[in-house]
Amino acid sequence: MVKSALRSKEIDKREPLTDAEQIAILSTLLKQRRESVESFTKGDRLELAAKEQAEIEMIEGYMPQAAGEDQSARSSRRPLRISPPAAEANQVSATWAPR
What we know:
Elements: H1 2-13, H2 19-42, H3 46-60, H4 69-76, H5 86-96
Helix pairs in contact: 1-2, 2-3
């Protein structure tokens, strides 16, 4: 189902899809499945809701992973790059100044 949706869009476009376009298609598929789960749950069709939920989990496997807390914490502990002092910056700009 995912492969056919991507292939169909690629045929319509007549050129390969970009990563952003692929993610947009996958996001649309996820949204459709989530709405279906909600509708099936309200209609007491739990077996169909479970099927749609399984498809959601499968599609999410193709989505890029967002930065988790561990990754965010690690990147915030990295030392910052310190810019050169103002005196050095003035020396650099003096070398590039027109004569």
